[in-house]
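Reminder to self: keep the SMILES exactly as supplied, no canonicalising. Ligand is S-adenosylmethionine.
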Amino acid sequence: MDGALPDLLEALRRDRALMEPDRLRERIEALDRLDALLPDAGAPAQCAQALQQQLEAANATQFEAIREAIQRGDGREALQRWRRAGDGAALRAGDGYDWRDELVGGVLPFGEPGEASALPPEMVFYQPTPARHVFDLLDRLALGADDVLVDLGSGLGHVPMLAAICSGARGIGIEIEPAYVASARACAQALRLANVAFVQGDARAADFAVGSVFHLYTPFTGSVLRSVLDALRREAGCRAFRISSFGPCTRVLAAEPWLASDDALLPGRVAIFRTRS
Ligand SMILES: C[S@@+](CC[C@H](N)C(=O)[O-])C[C@H]1O[C@@H](n2cnc3c(N)ncnc32)[C@H](O)[C@@H]1O
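Structure tokens returned for the bound complex:
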């Protein structure tokens, strides 16, 4: 650890363009590295904290600019450059988070939700789909203005909000936890997202007649998942739609005979299924 912080500070100070708008990713990653080194810092801590404040201020300015673009209805363009920035062709699989989650958390004004209640067995606690996988999903879905993405177990609501911002589709979140729904509604209102709505309730009682895509980041398991899939299968008898999934529930969806996937199912990536005709 010795020397690691001074070396990092020196490298960051030498990087004269670090505060430029297009270096957002590098600033977020630099803040992560500073955070990791600061507890053991000793004397250089003051310099590191000053630099941290500069980096955070530059990021806050940029988050605010993106937020204002979303409020004007220009969010798709404002976020476009960050959706694949710096990845090349590869998308990191798995459920870890990266700098894009900081970006989304900085831009979307999530209030601190109140205390969440304990969920019954078979209902899964809140954990957001990592932002890179949401952007990957939106690229692959290519939603249009007539689409409606319904997130079953929507938590703080970033999937329906990003779908609406990035595609112009409607976004609906269905979430059992009232505190999350209140936070999601406040966030959508602050961003002036007229085409996003959040419904508080059990996904088993949802209106499946609305929705061209249903998203499931393993919100429930066992008999709760079975009941929702049975309702979706009945709806599939009337019309076609797609289901996207992330996490362990993908295995269950892949075994459903009324669903098909056009892509190979890659571990740690979002899967997209369509109803069979
Ligand atoms: C793993 S998180 C997924 C969050 C969000 N869909 C995402 O992709 O970022 C699961 C969410 O489902 C919610 N949930 C669990 N059981 C539910 C049910 N029966 N009906 C509605 N929401 C439920 C939880 O409160 C939690 O917010």
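Points to follow up:
The chain has two domains: 4-72, 103-275.
The radius of gyration is 20 Å.
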